[in-house]
Every structure is written in structure tokens, then in C-alpha cells.
From TrEMBL:
Residues 81-95 have a biased composition (Low complexity). This is Transcription factor zinc-finger domain-containing protein. Residues 76-102 are annotated as: Disordered.
Length: 117
């Protein structure tokens, strides 16, 4: 996956941690190359709870790596701290999902990937 800003491709890293950083932009996981990280306005999504840009997007959820808040991707819901219900009474990241069809979608995706019928 290339850098979302400049299109540079990641090369095989030397030993140690990668200088590339992950972020979330418009509800999608992106990579940021070391050169673009020096730019102060990366236009990345931020956490509604703490303002951090240390977000990751996986399996339809966006999680803040700073405070642990989680929300469904592709929604306008504010991030909810992990393990706590939000004020509207919807479950947070305590093992329950906000979408009743999520389990069926995950099962269908696994069946496609694993070649099950």
C-alpha cells in the first residue's frame, strides 16, 4: 500500500520498527511515509474523545490507540470509550456490536475467503 499523500511505495524495512505510520482518513486505513509525516496538516481523522490521530481501522470499526475509544466505521457516531456504553444506550466495545448483521457479514466474508460453500 502506498503513502496516501505522495504515493511513495514502502520498501523492505531494515531491522527495527518501520518508520511508516498508520492512520485513518475518511474511514479507511492509510499509510504515511516518513517524508509526509513531517507535514503538520496530514488531514487524518481524529478521535472525538481525545483528539488523537492514532487511529486504526479494522473489521468495520475505528479504534483510538490513545484512549481506547471505538466506533463503527462509515458512520457519524462519536467514538465510545472501550467497554462502556455510550449515552444513547448503544453498546460500546464490550463484546457487543451495534449492528445485528455484523456476525453474518463476517461469517460470509470468512466463507468467501476460505472457499467454503
Amino acid at each position: 500500500m502506498p503513502c496516501y499523500r505522495c504515493g511513495a511505495r514502502q520498501t523492505d524495512p531494515v531491522r527495527g520498527a518501520s518508520p511508516w505510520k498508520r492512520g485513518v482518513r475518511h474511514e479507511a486505513q492509510v499509510l504515511v511515509c516518513p517524508d509526509c509525516q513531517r507535514v503538520h496538516d496530514l488531514d487524518l481523522d481524529t478521535c472525538a474523545s481525545c483528539g488523537s490521530v492514532a487511529l486504526i481501522c479494522r473489521l468495520g470499526e475505528v479504534e483510538c490507540r490513545s484512549c481506547g475509544a471505538v466506533r463503527l466505521a462509515r458512520s457519524n457516531d462519536p467514538l465510545v470509550p472501550a467497554g462502556r456504553p455510550d449515552p444513547a444506550g448503544r453498546p460500546g466495545a464490550s463484546g457487543q456490536t451495534n449492528s445485528p448483521g455484523l456476525a453474518a457479514e463476517v461469517e460470509a466474508a470468512l466463507n468467501r475467503v476460505l472457499g467454503r460453500s
